Amino acid sequence: MSLLNLTECFTLLDSEAQLGCRLLDNFPNCISFHPCNHLQESFYKAHLEALDRLCYRASSDPSTLVVVTDTSVIPPRNMQAVSAVHFWRLGEQVLSSKVLAGRTTALDAELFAIRLGVAKTVSFDIKHIILTTDSLSVARRAVDPSVHSGQAHSLAVVCALRGFFTGQPDYSIDFWDCPSNAQWSLHYLVHDNMTNTCIAAGCHLAISLNALCSKSAASCLDA
After folding, report:
1. Which domain holds residue 82?
2. Residue 155 forms beta bridges with which residues?
3. What pLDDT was estimated at residue 77?
4. Which end of the chain is more exposed for a tag (fewer CB within 10 A), N or C?
5. What's this model's pTM, rounded to 2 decimal places?
6. What is the CATH number of the domain that holds 60?
């Protein structure tokens, strides 16, 4: 693969990327990130217990939606990535989505999953979003409108959240780190659903910048 195979488009001067006008500049109190300390077991357990308590409270609060993301990225050349999202409200799964992500890296596929989750969530009559992901760095990239692989996903997330927050100072989104190996209940359900998902690449495949970089790096190592 070469840059001629790239299907992504990038925006250098998008209005969402102007300093002072970015989502995090305008709504700093509406967006929060909750990292998990993977190295210390006591903090690791405390983090998951806090997430359990939060979701338990959400199960009786109709104004809160819990969004759980995951991806399936199969190494062989003839397979493509898949992004999935489960939506939970009042303790029940109300919706799920599974979409082909093309030839991309795990991080780009996770970014696409976050986009799918946020874009659908803001259509619900809610005030609070709890979104769990196994990569908090990708969650941060989801609200970063600057040029990067998957920028279009980030711009879609930023635009959706801007509309969600505007005029509603008590609305919020919380991004929670949830490691895949923790087998946390709701994440395990979507992960289990994705584990055996294998989709052939097909024609006219979407190819991300990170996928090209990864392929080039692998080719250099093999040379």
Report:
1. 20-222
2. none
3. 62
4. C
5. 0.89
6. 3.30.420.10
Q: Span 70-79, mean pLDDT?
A: 75
Residue type, 46: A
pLDDT: is 141 or 42 the higher one?
141
Residue 98 near residue 162, CB atoms below 8 Å? no
85 bridge partner residues: 69, 97
Backbone Cα Rg of the chain: 18
CA angle 29, 34, 37 (to 5 degrees): 150
- CA neighbor of 174 nearest in space, from 71, 57, 40: 57
Per-residue confidence (pLDDT) for residue 40, from 0 to 100: 86
> Tens digit of pLDDT for each residue in 44-74?
899 999 999 999 999 999 999 999 999 988 7
Averaged pLDDT of the chain: 88
Q: What is the pLDDT of residue 219?
A: 59
Nearest CA-CA partner of 93 in 105, 85, 101 = 85
**Does the residue 12 lie in any domain?**
no
How crowded is residue 151: how many other Cβ atoms within 10 Å of its Cβ?
A: 22
In the structure encoding, which two tokens stand for residue 78, read together? 């003839």
Within 10 Å of residue 43's Cβ, how many Cβ atoms?
Answer: 13
User: CA–CA separation, 202 vs 205, rounded Å?
Assistant: 7
Query: Domains in the chain: how many in total?
Result: 1
| Residue 184: pLDDT over 60 | yes
129: nearest Cα among 63, 33, 50: 63
Residues 6+ apart with CB under 8 A from 19: 25
Structure tokens at 57: 């409270």
Q: Is residue 196 part of a domain?
A: yes
